[in-house]
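I had to read the description of the data format several times before I understood it. The format is easy to grasp once an entry is in front of the reader. For illustration, here is how one protein appears when written out as sequence plus structure tokens:
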Amino acid sequence: MRTRHLVGAAVAALAVPLTVALPAQSHGYVSTPPSRAALCGAGTVTDCGAIRWEPQSVEGSKGFPGAGPADGTICAGGNSRFAELDDPRGGAWPTTKVAAGQRLTFTWKFTARHATANFKYYLTKAGYNAGQKVTRAGLELTPFLTVPYNGTQVPSTLSHTATIPSGRTGHQVVVAVWEIADTGNAFYSCTDVLF
């Protein structure tokens, strides 16, 4: 009887540090217009791998574009588990139709409400080839929208409205970055648009 109590106490003592040490497994993504992660999560796009079950988990290092995910891994936040998000699929990702000068609202869905530094939105350059992976060379590195959040915690959903830049035609990609205030990480969300 005493042995059973000692084993139970040992298991409980080991379980406490493990549960404290495990990070949160969910965070946030752009739900509308649908990001690649949202399309995979909804089952609209198939062969998405693990992102199908956790579209909110595209987390990588912050500091983009000077730091953060390597070129060609930006849409997956540098996380090889979600490499399907970086696959251009021959330019066949579903797109949202937009026009230069249009006001477009981006809505984030959050499953963990972190203290936030800011949100930044980047657009691929004129002449971007939708059959290629997203790289810094293919992006305008000045965001077309920056929303400071000054360490405030986000609600469960949040929307930002931006004016779509001009000088683009065809299939382009918006890279949205949500920088966390109190960690070294950010969340990356790529949305395909068609001018």
About this structure: The chain has a mean pLDDT of 89. The longest strand covers residues 171-180.
